[in-house]
Automatic annotation (TrEMBL):
GO terms for cellular component: mitochondrion. Homodimer. Residues 50-415 form the Aminotransferase class I/classII large domain. It catalyses: L-aspartate + 2-oxoglutarate = oxaloacetate + L-glutamate. This is Aspartate aminotransferase. The lineage of its organism: Eukaryota, Viridiplantae, Streptophyta, Embryophyta, Tracheophyta.
Amino acid sequence: MMWRNLVGNSGRAWRSRCMSIVRRFEHVSPAPKDPITGVTEAFLADPSPNKINLGVGAYRDDEGRPVVLQCVRDAEAKIAGSEFLESVSAAVNSKMVEESCKLIYGKDSDAVMEGRFAGIQALSGTGACRLFAEFQRRFYPNSHMYFPAPTWSNHHNIWRDAQVSARNFCYYDPQSKDLNFEGLINDIKNAPEGSFFLLHPCAHNPTGVDPTEEEWREISYYLKVKNHFPFFDVAYQGFASGVMDKDARAIHIFLQDGHLVACAQSFAKNMGLYGHRVGCLSFICDDSKQAVAIKSQLQQIARAMYGSPPVHGVLLVSTILGDQAIKALWTEEIKIMADRIQGMRATLRESLEKLGSPLNWEHITSQVGMFCYSGLKAEQIDRLVREFHVYMTSDGRISMAGVTTGNVNYLANAIHEVTNSGYEESQILGESGF
Ligand code: LMR
C-alpha cells in the first residue's frame, strides 16, 4: 500500500514511530489552577441561582453586570472609521505613553515637562510587569525583587518566569489587619543595597491597606538611603479615593525626593478595558538621552516577546486621555465606581453588625480600593462555597466590586454563619477565635 511505502514499508517501524510521538508529552502534567482565575472557573460551573463571585478584581455595577463606561463609548464613536487595522503609528503610541505618564507622574511634573521619561504600550498591567522583569534580568542580573507580603499572586509567576530572584518584605499585619510599618521599614533597611522594591501606590491588592502620606514619605526616605529602586504597579488608580491625582500621591512624593522610578499602569479596571489589554510601562530617567536608550531596549524586549500589542485599545485610551471632555467624563465615572464600592463596604459592615456578629468588622471600611482582606480562614471559605455558593480567593480576599444591593444581606448572613459558629466553639475552647 502507498502509505506503507511512504513509511519504509514496515508496519513495526511505523508503530514505534507513533509510540514515540505519543510519549512526547508524557512528562507534561496539568498546571495547578491559578488562585484567581480558578475561582471564576469554579463560580461559572456552579448552577446555583444564589451564587456570588467575589474572586476576580473586575468592576461590576449594582446589578452585578460588567460595565462599558460612557467615556469608552464616546471614544469609540470618535475613532469609528479610522484606519486601525495595521499597527498604530508611533505618534499614537507616543501620545498614549505621554498621557499615561502625565496621569501618574502629574501633568506638571518636572520629569514629564523635561521629557525625561521613557515608556511603551504594554499588554495591560501583567504585560507591563513582565517587560519590567525582563528588563531587570537583562540589566541587573544579580538583583532581587522585593514583594510586599502578601502581593498579587501573579507577581510571583511573572518574576519567576523572568528568572529574577524574588523576596518578600513585611507589609500586612494579620493581627491588626493593618500595615506592619515597623517591619516594612526594617526590611527596607536590611535588604542588600540597590535592591528593587515592588510597591502598590494605591488600593493595595490583595489587602486594601495603603500607607498614609506620612508613611510613604518615610518609605521613600529609607529606599533612597539604601539606593533601592522603586517599581510601582498601578492597576487600580482611582479606586482608592475616587480621584486620579490623589491616588498617585505616593509616586509624586518619590519624584519630589529625587527617585528614578518605573511604573506599570493598567487601564483594565479604571477604564473597564479588561479584554483590550492596554497598559503602559514607563521609566523616569536622569535625562532624555537615557530615556531614548531605555525606550529602545523596551521596544526590543517587546518585539521578541509578542511583536506589537493590539491597536484598538490604545486608540481608545489615547482618545480618552487626549480629549478634555471625554477625560472629564471618565473621571466622573471613576468616582461613581469608587463610591459604589465604598458604599458596599459600609453596608456589608453594617449588616454584619446588625446580625449581632461579635467580631470586629472595622477593617471592611478602613481598607480601600477594590479589595477587602476579610481575615476569613480556609475552612470558613470552604463553607461559604459549599453551603452558600459564595466564591473568593483562598486567602480570604473579597472583591468588593462583586457585592451589590441585591446580594449584600445574603453575603452578610453567610459570613456571619461561618464565622459565628467557629467563634462560639473557640470561646468554649478558650481560643482567640477569628
Ligand atoms: C485580580 O487581582 O483579581 C485582578 O488583577 C485580575 C487578575 O488577572 O488577577
